[in-house]
From TrEMBL:
Ranges for domain Alcohol dehydrogenase-like C-terminal: 33-126
A Pfam family assignment: ADH_zinc_N
Protein name as it appears in the record: Alcohol dehydrogenase-like C-terminal domain-containing protein
InterPro entries, per the entry: ADH-like_C, MDR_fam, NAD(P)-bd_dom_sf
UniProt organism field: Microlunatus aurantiacus
Length: 143
């Protein structure tokens, strides 16, 4: 907790997302060191927490960690389960994964939602160009 994962969770959540009590936070890879810390810090601050992880054992661990809702990203209806878990939308999404989890979260983000991007693990080994993740060039020639 005092090393890089804890600092990443602390800085990403408190310095970038600036959560307030009563907000809904979702975090992907929520059983990993960063995601677990994000969820627990958010819970201490009074947020409603939705943890997303892969597999029944990890979902059970999310419940042990105190997340309000624990979802399996492998569920056949992740979109529907997430909509049910966040009927008033999502105020903060701590992004660790990208891919299908991001696709399920994106339509549920509230106006002025904050999305600290820690990683995009689902795309790390992709050899294809990733749609929507290209940053436009702001200058011609070398910048």
């Amino acid at each position: 907790m005092l090393g890089m994962p804890g600092f990443t969770a602390y800085a990403g959540l408190l310095q970038i997302a600036e959560p307030t009590a009563g907000e809904t936070l979702a975090v992907a890879a929520a059983t990993g060191p960063v995601g677990a810390a994000v969820g627990q810090i958010a819970k201490i601050l009074g947020c409603r927490t939705i943890g997303i992880a892969g597999g029944p054992r990890k979902v059970e661990h999310l419940q042990e960690l105190g997340f309000d809702v624990a979802l399996d990203h492998r569920a056949s209806d992740l979109d529907g389960l997430l909509r049910e878990a966040a009927p008033d939308g999502i105020d903060i999404y701590f992004e660790n994964v990208g891919g299908a989890v991001w696709d399920a979260v994106l339509p549920l983000l509230n106006t002025y939602a904050r999305v600290p991007v820690c990683g995009l693990a689902a795309t790390y080994n992709s050899l294809d160009r990733l749609p929507g993740l290209t940053v436009p060039r702001l200058c011609s020639g070398p910048c």
